[in-house]
Design goal:
Structural class: alpha+beta
Family: Belongs to the cytochrome P450 family.
Pathway: Steroid metabolism; cholesterol degradation
Shape: globular
Distance between the termini: 44 Å
Strand content: 5-15%
Cofactor: heme
Strand order of the largest sheet: 1-2-10-7-3
Keywords: Cholesterol metabolism, Heme, Iron, Lipid degradation, Lipid metabolism, Metal-binding, Monooxygenase, Oxidoreductase, Steroid metabolism, Sterol metabolism
Order of helices and strands: HHEEHEHHHEHHHHHEEHHHEEEEHHEEEE
CATH architecture: Orthogonal Bundle
Largest sheet: 5 strands, mixed
CATH class: Mainly Alpha
Number of domains: 1
Helix content: 40-55%
GO molecular function, one term: steroid hydroxylase activity
Oligomer: single chain
CATH superfamily: Cytochrome P450
Length: 415
């Protein structure tokens, strides 16, 4: 770790860095040590302040009246940012919960909140456990080698969240493809086209699908999350088309893709740490802490951004009204001041105050569901797992926002 801050800041504005763990973490460690509040001015992005310490990220998330999600909730290129704002002004565009601030955010969040509360999770657990068994049985039936990401880890949480929404199974593959394209705009394997306009066409496809779904659920409401969204009221009125369609998009996409990243990255960590795998198999009571460690280790959501509502400071560094900060969750989850031996994968780590679900008013709506899905799949798999090893080189996606393993070739024996 050489303390080359200039080089380190460039990593945050380089999607390929997130596909290279060694390079990424070396740079983030330099920033934490030498410049925890660092100015990043790297084309094709607008400048921002990189926040790499856990405590600073928490402080900013807490002060949601000072640090706003609008107008820049995530890092995108200046060109894509301009196009997204122009579309919203024209009445078409993406405005999900992560784009909103209170009080509107709180009202919109409440529409889906009941579907992710403990009672709803208990009711859903039977279905999740059934699906976990289905996919572990599939690993057994495949026998020998498989790509764990594309054959198992993608499909299990996809089926859970789209079943919760009430979508027909024949549409699941379409939702998966659109999600890959939306989150994979920086990855050569996933992206649709090279221009912001081509990539925005993904959103049009999402909106066309969910527009028809909204009309159907308003005409004939059913007992599913899609109906709750379609008929959700804010201040006594139906949500706008933009807010309604965006709600579907964030639930359908983030609701499975991030869990896929945590499941596949968690299995990879167990393969690379056979002592921890054996420890977890010998003591299934460690599963809750193991799940939290997998979520810390993989950090599927790499960052969110906030914009200062007034002049302020972070760690003594002046930040002007209108300037944006980049909350580097990946860095916060390896902060030496918070985690003992942060680069050790420890299935019994406790406490584990990771930032992977965010913090404060924007804490992930689906956190309980993600935890339950991970608990179910590993609780089903590990007692039946006789052997496992890599059968090729794992591959990470290029991204600056959401991502993880694209491919995890494994060779395993499952009873």
């Amino acid at each position: 770790m050489g303390g080359d801050v200039n080089s380190a800041t460039k990593v945050l504005a380089d999607p390929t860095a997130y596909a290279d763990d060694e390079r990424l973490h070396a740079s983030l460690a330099d920033l934490r040590a030498h410049e925890p509040v660092a100015w990043v001015d790297q084309a094709p992005y607008r400048p921002f302040w990189a926040i790499t310490k856990h405590a600073d990220i928490m402080d900013i998330e807490r002060a949601n009246d000072l640090w706003l999600s609008e107008p820049r909730p995530v890092l995108v290129t200046a060109e894509a940012d301009d196009l997204a704002r122009a579309q919203l002004e024209a009445g078409f565009g993406l405005r999900t919960l992560i784009h909103m601030d209170d009080p509107h955010h709180r009202k919109v969040r409440a529409i889906g909140a009941d579907w992710f509360r403990p009672k709803a999770m208990r009711d859903l657990k039977i279905r999740v456990d059934e699906l976990a068994k289905r996919y572990v049985d599939k690993m057994r039936d495949i026998g020998g080698e498989c790509d764990f990401v594309t054959e198992i880890a993608v499909n299990f949480p996809l089926y859970v969240i789209l079943s919760l929404l009430g979508l027909p199974e024949e549409d699941f593959s379409r939702m998966h493809m659109l999600t890959q394209e939306m989150f994979g705009g920086d990855d050569d394997e996933y992206k649709r086209g090279t221009t912001p306009e081509e990539q925005m066409a993904v959103l049009t496809d999402f909106f066309n699908y969910f527009g028809a779904l909204t009309a159907s659920r308003r005409a004939n409401p059913t007992d599913d999350l899609a109906s709750a969204i379609a008929n959700g009221l804010v201040d006594g009125e139906l949500m706008s088309d933009v807010d309604t369609l965006s709600y579907y998009v964030i639930v359908a996409s983030a609701g499975h893709d991030t869990t896929k990243d945590a499941i596949s990255g968690g299995l990879h960590a167990l393969i690379e740490n056979p002592g921890e795998l054996a420890r977890l198999q010998a003591d299934p009571g460690l599963m809750p802490t193991a799940v939290e460690e997998m979520i810390r280790w993989t950090t599927p959501v790499k960052e969110f951004m906030r914009t200062a509502a007034e002049d302020t400071t972070v760690r003594g560094v002046p930040i002007a009204k209108g300037e944006s900060v980049y909350l580097a969750y990946v860095s916060g989850n390896r902060d030496e001041d918070v985690f003992d031996d942060p680069f050790r994968f420890d299935v019994g780590r406790d406490p584990n105050k990771h930032l992977s679900f965010g913090y404060g008013v924007h804490f992930c709506l689906g956190a309980a569901l993600a935890r339950m899905e991970m608990n179910s799949i590993f609780t089903e798999l590990l007692p039946r797992l006789e052997s496992i090893e890599l059968a090729g080189e794992p591959e990470l996606a290029a991204t600056t926002f959401v991502g993880g393993l694209k491919h995890l070739p494994i060779r395993c024996s499952v009873r």
